Amino acid sequence: PQIPQGILSTLRSLYSINDINSTDNSNAKIRSHLSLVIIGHVDAGKSTLTGRLLLSLNHVSQRQYQKHIKSSTDIGKSSFALAWFTDEDEDERQRGVTIDVATKYISTKKYDFTILDAPGHRDFVPNMISGAASADCGLLVVAATTGEFEAGFAKGGTGGGDEDVGTCCGQTREHVLLSRGLGVTQFVVAVNKLDAADPAWSERRFEEIKSSMTSFLKEVGYREKNITVVPVSGLTGVNIHRKEGKMSEDESEGWLALQKWYKGPTLVEAMDNFNPAKREFEKSLRVIVTDVSSEGKNVNIRGRVARGFVRMGEDVVVLPVGDEANIVRVERGTAAREGVSPYSFGNTSAPASVSTSSPLPEKGMADIPELQNCALAGDIVEITLSGIDPARLSPGCVICHPHPSLRPKVKRKVEARVLVMDRLSVPIIRGSQVLLHMHSIDVPAVLTKLLSSQRRGDATPRQNPRVITGGVTATVEITLSEKTVLEESNECKSLGRFVLRRGGDTIAVGLIDKVLD
Ligand code: GDP
């Protein structure tokens, strides 16, 4: 089940490149796809900013916005009108699927983005993990208001000061560390709520936050060229997207104040400057299931193609259970799925309501006829399967092609490299019990061997350490409580990267080096 030659050559000609795995799409004739996870401390303004992006890029209508303003004002929550766009919609409620991470689609000039709006509250870190595990890039939102940035960025706890990372402290650091561990390689940092900073649109406040965020991101391992920091106000719509047309008073005041000292990109321009993601179209298929629902005799799943290529009519196998099924429908998530989107299959002309300055298509992947009923690495998909019992499927299952040589391993034991969080209240020892989180699953596990550990600056690693303390890199053997679909991280990022948590705190991020028998 290789990617058919016809489709391959279509992709190559559209991308103007010979190697479709190349990350250089500077000559591409179509928008390529990126998954973007939105992270940040609770109340930093993530949902509001997502709503603003949807509105500014015409994915929701002014009329809908006015409706939200009215109904949110009626219940005394007018400041949440934009955030309501990321609330689960009627359709999702009716289908009864659990969407932990709100998924939205937006299109800019260069990209079709799938936006994963991860919950900021620390109780929802597992959902944040599943968002970051499927993201290529991140939008980190920090609030510039007095005290709010500091609270979100605080290292330790508010009281004792001895808690693990994650205990009563700001979520900004933990989210960044998790994203880094799960393979998110580039970030735009939105310094938000500058309209409410003291004084409003303060250059000094922006620079202060920019410099702490940049040094933190570098410390964690990001390269400066992969970080862009932009000043914005999601609520008033300043520096989100340049467009023609009338502005509100708040909006034009904000733009004027900002233009006095800021010459950099808008948020949308910064997002367009992301590097394209490397897609492993030609490797064997892996679809990671995130939602399951049954429909008559068939089963609908929603998931992400982590690798490879899939199309209607193919036979597949679902792991870890090993049951076979046939694919009767494949639908890729794109901007076209949102009702008011200007983009739809086979129709690339802009509707009248879209202003001329909006970033209008060229073409997206969804517009290529050959790609109907197919999905490729990186896509969010809905797949209908026949011939399988829905009870045998659950979030976290992996769909692949049935030939034994094309399947990932289903095992219980791995050798992995882990980066341990700086602040650990209880050190890790042999036999420590943890919860191993990957994509959308968590499995109880035990650290069965501590093979080596190395502190930053140490010349050589220590062999067989008795304990592992905060801030070290270690090689360990982990035994899971049940057979799980596992893969070496260089084979498949999504199935080879994980997070270890204990008592509700993140203690390490890791990479699988070997899947053991
Ligand atoms: P989330 O928890 O990060 O998703 O934050 P929300 O989007 O729900 O916003 C939290 C609160 O901050 C709401 O009351 C918003 O109206 C407010 N807020 C969000 N963005 C801005 C902004 O740019 N300026 C101001 N002044 N308030 C904002």
Automatic annotation (TrEMBL):
The keyword Nucleotide-binding applies. One of its GO terms (cellular component) is chloroplast. Its main location: cytoplasm. Keywords: Cytoplasm, GTP-binding, Hydrolase, Nucleotide-binding, Protein biosynthesis. GO terms for molecular function: GTP binding; hydrolase activity. It is found in: Cytoplasm; Plastid, Chloroplast. It catalyses: GTP + H2O = GDP + phosphate + H(+). GO terms for biological process: translation. Residues 31-279 form the Tr-type G domain. The keyword Magnesium does not apply. Belongs to the TRAFAC class translation factor GTPase superfamily. Classic translation factor GTPase family. EF-Tu/EF-1A subfamily. This is Tr-type G domain-containing protein. It comes from Discostella pseudostelligera. The lineage of its organism: Eukaryota, Sar, Stramenopiles, Ochrophyta, Bacillariophyta. The chain holds residues 166 to 682 of 682 of the full protein.
